[in-house]
Amino acid sequence: MKLTKRGEYALRTLIRLGVAARTGSPIVSVSRLAEQERIPAKFLENILADLKAEGYVEGIRGKSGGARLVCDPAETKMGELVRFLDGKLAPIGCASETAYEPCTCPDAEHCGLRMLMIDVRNAIAGILDRYSLGDVVTVTLSKLERDGMAPVAVAAPVKAKAKSVRKPPGQPRHADPDDGFLAGLINNLGHLKPGK
User: Is residue 193 situated within a structural domain?
Assistant: First the structure.
């Protein structure tokens, strides 16, 4: 599975709106969302229209308008969002549960590649269907607080509890396993154990 740019931008937008709602600024202007997430404004408007049509966000008109999250983050599973945005989770069509496509393999029933890709799909679905948008927002806020960074939607900076050794956002670095969502859940939020 690979997220499209549309899927990536939409998920980042939903997380950003969830953080904003949790930090007391539930309405975020579209131009601010586009700027903060580095998404082309027209592309973001199209994404927001799709999210609005599906009932995940609401558009607010007027001077203080923008977008806000209307779905319940605690009840909105990440798998549901990914499937809505990008379709199947399986890396190949013949391993998909929801969008099955026959392959060219002469014996799909005994195909080792298909069996492996079904397990890949199951692992991806297991994580995405276990955690909600609210879980991701909670871990995001926890990491921001840990690193002494202001939550995204809040104008006033948050004082750091300890000096951060993390690189500032925007600087390229490798994908450290300790930066993953599950590591954040386990390390920063002991009360939210995986699977609960």
Answer: no
Residues 155, 120: one domain?
no
Residues found in the chain: 196
Q: Per-residue b/e over 121-154, b at no fewer than 16 CB within 10 Å?
A: beebbeebeebbbbbbbbbbbbbbebbebebbbe
Q: Is residue 168 part of a domain?
A: yes
Task: Band the pLDDT of 72: cuts 50, 70, 90.
Answer: very high
Total domain count, the chain: 3
Domain identity same for 142 and 116: no
Asked if the structure places residue 77 within a domain, the reply is no
Position of tokens 């995001």? 140
Distance in angstroms (rounded) separating the CA atoms of residues 131 and 195: 8
Alpha helices in the chain (DSSP H): 5-22, 30-37, 41-53, 78-86, 112-130, 133-146, 181-188
* Parent domain of 64: 5-69
Q: How far apart are CA 157 and CA 155, in angstroms?
A: 6
Domain-located, residue 172: yes
Q: Give the three-state DSSP class for 90.
A: coil
pLDDT at 176 over 70: no
pLDDT tens-digit profile of 129-142? 999 999 999 999 98
- For residue 155, is pLDDT > 60? no
